[in-house]
Write a structure and sequence with these properties.
Length: 273
C-alpha cells in the first residue's frame, strides 16, 4: 500500500495577505480620530484577529489535510496464475462428480457395525437334514450285526432291514432254549456206544439258529469223566441245513451217538451254548 504525503503548508504571510486584501463585506470601517490613534488601534486589533483566524484556519487545514489525503486501504487482489494444471482440474472435477458416500473415507473395520447375516434358505436346512438321515442309515446298516445282537436296538434295525432288504444275523440267546426231553442209552450190540436223544424249544422273542450242545458224563460219585461240545453240523442229519433257524416257540428233536469214555458212567447233563 502506498503512503500519501500531505500537501505543503502555505506560509503564514500568505494567509495574512489574503485576509488583508479581501476583508469581509459586512465589516465597517471605524471612525477615525483626528490624530489617527483610534484608527491605528482598531487596525492593529483587526490585523491580530485576522491573523488569529487565519492561524486557526490553517491549523484546521493542517489537521484536516492529512485525514483527507489518507486513502482507505484496499486489499490487494491475489494474483492467480493463468497457467493452471489440467490434471488438478480433472481431479477436482472427478471429486465433485463422486457421490457423497464414495467421497467419504471408509471407517476402520473395528468401528463398523456388524452386518446382519442373511437368513438361511429353508431348502438348505432340508438338504442338510436329508444328508444327516442318509448318513445315519449308512452307519446303522454297516453296524447292523452289533445292533442286532442287542435286545433294545434289534426291533428297529430289523424293521429297517425289512425295508432296505438287508440281512440280519440270527438272534443268539442260549438261555432262551428250554430242554423238553433227554435220554442217553447204550447201543445194543455195540459195547461202549451211547445213543443220545434230546428235544428242546426256542423261547426267545426272535428266531435263533441251532445251538451248540455240551454233553457231560459223570460217574456214581458225581465226578465228570467226559465232556464234549457238539456243533449243529455234528448232531443234525447231513441232509438238514445247519444254517437254518428256529422260530420263537418252535421245538426240535435231535439224536446222535457217542462213545462211552468209561464203563462207570451213570449220569449225564446237557448245556446249550
Amino acid at each position: 500500500m502506498t503512503e500519501s504525503t500531505p500537501p505543503p503548508r502555505r506560509p503564514l504571510a500568505t494567509f495574512l495577505r489574503a485576509s488583508s486584501a479581501s476583508p469581509s463585506d459586512d465589516a465597517t470601517v471605524p471612525p477615525t480620530d483626528v490624530d489617527g490613534t483610534t484608527a491605528d488601534k482598531e487596525r492593529d486589533m483587526e490585523v491580530d484577529s485576522a491573523s488569529d483566524n487565519t492561524s486557526s484556519e490553517s491549523d484546521r487545514e493542517d489537521i484536516a489535510a492529512p485525514d483527507a489525503a489518507i486513502e482507505p486501504e484496499v486489499a490487494e487482489p491475489v494474483s492467480v496464475d493463468s497457467a493452471h494444471d489440467p490434471a488438478g482440474d480433472e481431479a477436482f472435477r472427478r471429486l465433485a462428480e463422486q457421490p457423497e458416500a464414495e467421497a467419504a473415507p471408509a471407517a476402520p473395520s473395528f468401528m463398523r457395525a456388524p452386518e446382519a447375516p442373511l437368513p438361511t434358505p429353508r431348502w438348505q436346512w432340508g438338504l442338510v437334514a436329508g444328508l444327516v438321515v442318509v448318513l445315519a442309515l449308512q452307519i446303522a446298516v454297516a453296524d447292523r450285526a452289533r445292533l442286532a445282537a442287542d435286545a433294545g436296538s434289534r426291533p428297529w434295525i430289523a424293521g429297517l432291514c425289512s425295508v432296505l432288504r438287508c440281512s440280519l444275523p440270527a438272534w443268539q440267546e442260549p438261555t432262551a432254549f428250554s430242554m423238553i426231553g433227554r435220554d442217553v442209552r447204550p447201543v445194543p450190540g455195540q459195547p461202549g456206544a451211547l445213543q443220545v436223544q434230546a428235544s428242546f424249544r426256542n423261547d426267545a422273542r426272535w428266531a435263533q439258529g441251532w445251538p451248540s450242545l455240551r454233553l457231560s458224563l459223570s460217574d456214581a460219585d458225581g465226578r465228570v469223566i467226559g465232556t464234549r461240545v457238539f456243533a449243529p453240523h455234528d448232531y443234525l442229519d447231513p441232509a438238514a441245513d445247519a444254517a437254518s433257524v428256529l422260530e420263537p416257540g418252535q421245538s426240535a428233536q435231535i439224536a446222535f451217538r457217542v462213545r462211552e469214555p468209561a464203563a462207570s458212567t451213570v449220569a449225564f447233563t446237557f448245556e446249550f451254548l
